[in-house]
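Lab notes, practical 5.
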Amino acid sequence: MSTGEGPADPGLVSSPQASGVKVLETLKKHVFEHSDAPSKTLSSREVCSSFSDLTAAVFSSSQRANSGVVVSGAIELLVHACSNQDRAIRLAGQENLHKLVKKLQSTHLSKLLQDLFHELKKNGSARSLSVALEVFAALFPRTRPSRRQALSQSLLPVLLRLLARDEEGLHESLQDGLSHILPTLTPFLSTTNNQLLMSAVLDRLPASPASFRRMAASTLHSLCVHSKSPQSLTSWLVGRMINIGCQETATEQTCQGILLTLQNMAGDQDIKTLNLMKQVYGLVLSCMMYRDGNTTVAAMETMNSLLLASSPALSRWLMTAQPSHALASKFWMITNEGEVGGDGQDSRQEKQDSSSDAHSLREDINDAYFGSDQEPSPPATAESSPVTSDAGSAVVQMGYFAVRDGPTQPLSSLVLYLTESVLVGKRVSALSVGLACLTSCADLAPSLLPSLSPYLPFTVHPDPKLKSRSAKLLAVLLRALLRESRGEASSPLVSEAAAALHSVLTDSSPVVLKAVCESLRICLPSLAASSQPKLAVELVEPLLAAASSSSYWLAKVELLRTLACLPLTALALSLPSLPHSLLSLCVFPLLGDTDHRLALCLSLPSDPETCLLSQSQNCSC
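Output from the prediction step:
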């Protein structure tokens, strides 16, 4: 639209009492006919002003007789205006549409939903659909329960058409809109319709834009969570994803989309069955062997989520010795599509039911994990190296993994891969996620990290993110070691980890200091209650010095929160001067600080028992 000034159209009267139908018809003539070319009769400013006149006319009490016609026409016009070439007209159309919906949603909810649904059915431009979907998604959960069944059945084919569109902006709107629509829509869909919708979403996983994969991952997760039978649908979905991911034609984008979906589903109770978790673990482990860096990082992030949310059964399996050949090659799908975790059939029955080449490839690793009378050999790889001798046991290098004769713990093999393959690289994102995975492994089984030498270089790394990750690894390892030894801190590994944490505390970077404080809150209570509380005291002393020297307020707040979590009464037995030092070096100077956030952190915590001021005063007394 032209932005120049021009004479006002005589058909447009700037008055709330103007005929809504007349304003609507005049605007339709200009907006619909000239949406792709500048208008010859109206300026952009006049069209935007006319939108306000139309909205005011809809609200006018004199239009009640024509309210249905005016509301439908206004919504159609404003949604269409959102795809106009003129940015001012697009913004004005969107603003007036939201104003119209906000005013009428309490009295004309059904009418608004019906008109917005018709706009979605038109499958018009991406901009118009994005705006209509945003408004429709906000109103859909308020639908009366008696109308949800019919509306859900009508909405399904519309969503399938939207999912087939290729506009990136539309898929970003779909991600937000479906997060509001699916909790209300999914319970009214049959299992067949749910699987149909999931299949349409799965088709978007190979797409190159990351927004498509994010939309697909969040949508699949929401469909599983809110369905009538979440466990069976989750099993079906995981089976489909494993089947897709194990195909030779699977691209890096497909694997990344599958991994993102599994990462979203990692904390769900419906994926907690051991059979299902083992298959997910195997798929993620195979994706970690990709040469593509983005896929490897996504696989490690998913693995970290699985380890953090692992069930007791999965934790026991990860720390139970398995046949070594199960860790030597790719993991493959073990059951037919749709049967994962469902009927509990083992892989021997699967081999009798299928003789295809693709399925025979998948059987290589299945028998090792789920039981078989035979001992299949792992497929040969181009990266295989000759057998070498190590302490009397044969070691074969298969791809990324070093496979030893005899049973091997899956978690031990994972730690070996992370330590010897990931941490020797130079990509900071991969190193950071690798340290996070090792932190989760250390929390489950600290004995798998017998030496700190591979991880100590990261405590002096110039990148603050890696320093922070290494500090958390040391803190979690300390807590896990003390938990297993029931507070006995005589192990050299405990002293070495505490000394490494002490060295990180000397870093002057506020970012590192904040992260180290968060890590210390993990291990300091355990250290203070251990047989060597002096190790905790040695870590507290640099905290006191940092609290008085740091200039960043957020770092000071983290320092105070860390000091507040300490059992100062117990530590005072090892260092009698600690309460006095705490008051003189930390509490009193910061109480007079000009930043009120520090004073609030000192004196008014959410938990009175962790109030640093009251603790230090009690210890001094």
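Observations recorded by the TA: Residues 451-571 form one domain. The chain has 28 helices and three strands.
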